[in-house]
Design a protein that fits this description.
two-stranded antiparallel sheet, six-stranded mixed beta sheet, Uracil-DNA Glycosylase, subunit E, 8 strands, 217 residues, 35% helix
Length: 217
């Protein structure tokens, strides 16, 4: 499927905007030569009304596969939820060529390169913000954004130049953005959050049920 935003919202494979991430990427190319090891492009349908924004690629997840949330536990939960509720169809095989197709949905990350210890810094969020801004503003059918975690929530607000205090993060919260797009929040679907019961599968699914009702899918 042709991505209408290709070349506009995606960083180049040799992006040099974030020195720390470039250094980490270079090291990983030596350690894991068979990994994708580059800024991970968005995974999308060409008529997306719904954008999911995560934190950053996992070293042995998206950084391995080259597709957001693919190859790690977070992806297992996310894609199972998407297929169950009609946001995706096909079988998730935990690799980029499994044939899974999204339905009016696009998935991206606030930061496109894998960070050390899965932790990004403010300068990296700001650097990648230009790509996220282009992505959000170029999606003509966009009606809903889901931020997975506080970092993604803050990145969305920052790129849209709105104040975080006016849109506080909360699991299950929804906010009407100045454009009229609704911003939904969820705790990140990480193994840590589910193991500690901060996020249950039902809590996660309930957010998507709310979004599906709003989008009338």
């Amino acid at each position: 499927m042709t991505d209408p935003l290709d070349g506009f919202s995606e960083p180049p494979s040799d992006c040099v905007l974030c020195p720390r991430l470039v250094s980490y990427r270079t090291d990983n190319k030596e350690k894991y030569p068979d990994f994708f090891n580059a800024p991970v492009p968005s995974f999308a349908s060409d008529d997306a009304a719904f954008l999911i924004v995560g934190l950053a690629p996992g070293l042995k997840g998206a950084n391995w596969s080259g597709r957001p949330f693919t190859g790690d536990y977070a992806g297992d939960l996310l894609y199972a939820t998407l297929t169950t509720l009609g946001f995706a169809k096909g079988d998730y095989g935990a690799h980029a060529d499994d044939g899974l197709v999204l339905n009016k949905t696009r998935i991206t990350n606030a930061v496109r390169c894998a960070p050390p210890q899965n932790k990004v810094v403010a300068q990296e969020i700001a650097a990648c913000g230009a790509f996220l801004n282009t992505e959000i503003n170029s999606l003509k059918n966009l009606k809903a954004i889901l931020a997975l975690g506080t970092v993604a929530h803050g990145a969305v607000l920052r790129t849209l130049d709105v104040r975080k205090k006016d849109y506080p993060f909360g699991h299950g919260a929804r906010h009407v953005l100045p454009s009229g797009t609704l911003l939904f929040d969820s705790y990140h679907c990480s193994r840590y959050n589910t193991n500690t019961k901060r996020l249950t599968e039902q809590m996660f699914q309930d957010v998507f049920i709310d979004i599906r009702k709003y989008l009338e899918l």
